[in-house]
Structure formats: C-alpha cells, structure tokens
Amino acid sequence: MASYNIGIDLGGTNVRVGVVDEHGHIIEEVSDLTEAKKGPKYVVDKITKMINSLENKDKISSIGIGAPGPLNPNTGVIIEPPNLLGWKNVPIVEMIYENTGIYCRLDNDANVAGLAEAKYGNGKDFDIVQYITISTGIGGGLIINKKIVSGSQGAAGEIGQMRIIANSPKQLTSSTLEDLSSGTAIAKFAKERKITNKGAKEVFELADNGNIDAKRLINEVLDYLAVGIANITHTVNPDIFILGGGVTESLKKYGYINELIAKVRGYVYNSLVDFVNIKPAKLGTKAGIIGAANLVKF
C-alpha cells in the first residue's frame, strides 16, 4: 500500500493541508481560513478536522508543519510570531500528535519552502541552496544536501534581520534587509516619497510605465537586496539562490532578475563573480505543503 506524508502550510490568513507522495506530488489538498485570533486550540482542532476529511488519511506516515517564526523546530514550539497574534509558546507538534496519533515535525515556513525547492524545484540539481522569500517580509532557508540547516535554536536563515547599513538615512526607521527590501518597505518608501499609496505592485507598474521616482526606488531596493545576497555569498557560498514571494514575482515579471544578478556580482570577490546563480522559485504556493511533508523522510 502506498504511504504518504501530510504537509501543513499554516499562515496568518489561510491554512492548507495536503497529502504528498515521495516524488513531491500533492495528491489531495484542503484549505480554510486560519482564524488565528480564536486561539491555538481552535486552529489545531480545525486542522485535525481537515486531516480527518482527507480520503487518504489512513495511508499517512507522518505530518510536517510549516509555520511563521520565530519557532523552535527542536521542541516543536511556535514561540510568538507576529503573523499569529496572541500565540505564545504554543506546543503545536504535541497538540497535533495528541489529536491524531501521527508523528509530527515543525519548521519555519521559509525553511520548508526552501526544502521543497531544493528537492523538487530549481535547486534540485545543487547541494547548497539558499532560499529567500521576498514578500510582506523577508525570510530565508539554507538547505545543504537536501536537509534544512536550522541552527541550535532554530534561528538559522533569518536573513531578513541582517543589518545592511550601519547608520540609516533619516527616512528609514531601521537598517535590516527586511526594512529595506521587503514589499512592506517598498510600499512605505513609495508613500513617503509620494509615488503611490497602493503598495509594492503599483510601484513596479509605475516604473514599467516610465515613472522616474518609481524606477529610482526599485533601483535602491535592488541595491540593498544585492548587498544582502553578497553577504550570504561570502558567508555560505551557496551553489544557487532561489527567490520566492510576491516581490520576486514582480522582479521576474518586469525583468529585474538579471539586473539583480549584475548588482550582486559588483559586491562579491572577483573569484566568485562567474558563480553568482540566482533563479526564481519554481513551485509557487505549493512549496509550503510539499516542503512541510518532507520534514520527515518517506
């Protein structure tokens, strides 16, 4: 009889549960609103009902959960994520196991997406994969030999908190990569500079239509992002960077990936210039479920 794993993609707005096979194919999927404000027990009970609704529930070997950080994958505890307001030190692995009796693992949502890309996406042919998600915030996952590098407290890969500039300009509240290059940052800068109030997507559209201020802002954001990627290059030296998230979709749509590569090459050692390898993610929104299911071997 075929054996499958369940992948749970737990987000601040939606929760998705999928049955995944050893080849990374989603066999079955259900989704619902998270309703995190109703508390961890309510959400875990909802997830349990979703699992029980699956046609293949009797063929499940393990459950993996990808959730917003901070969290500790070693203890299975979600610590206090801003995306799940009111959740503090939630032992979600224990709670899921008590409800289902199925072995369960937890990891950061960026880590599990990176694992999916490293095993089945654009990183599958490489040993050292650095995944970066650029969306509302910025997160990352380092995958070496198809295994997540979590760190002693599970905080490895939190590249959004990397300091990019020592002394922030007056218009910036901070100087981390997330503060400077995320979708939230782009929207904030655009509003402050009176470019648009409609968010990051609108900035890219304006730039594509020739708006000089929008073009200048995107160029600045790419510079900050390139510095961050160069820092990671000199620290980890991955074979490939895989970029996911909503901002990456805009970078791809409007042709900025090659420009980003050129900027990164300007910040790395000469000996590394020809080895800068950056690709957009392949698996899209499916990466969360697929990666979570792969937290335990099939």
Automatic annotation (TrEMBL):
<dbReference type="InterPro" id="IPR000600">
    <property type="entry name" value="ROK"/>
</dbReference>
<dbReference type="Pfam" id="PF00480">
    <property type="entry name" value="ROK"/>
</dbReference>
<protein>
    <recommendedName>
        <fullName>Glucose kinase</fullName>
    </recommendedName>
</protein>
<dbReference type="InterPro" id="IPR043129">
    <property type="entry name" value="ATPase_NBD"/>
</dbReference>
<comment type="similarity">
    <text>Belongs to the ROK (NagC/XylR) family.</text>
</comment>
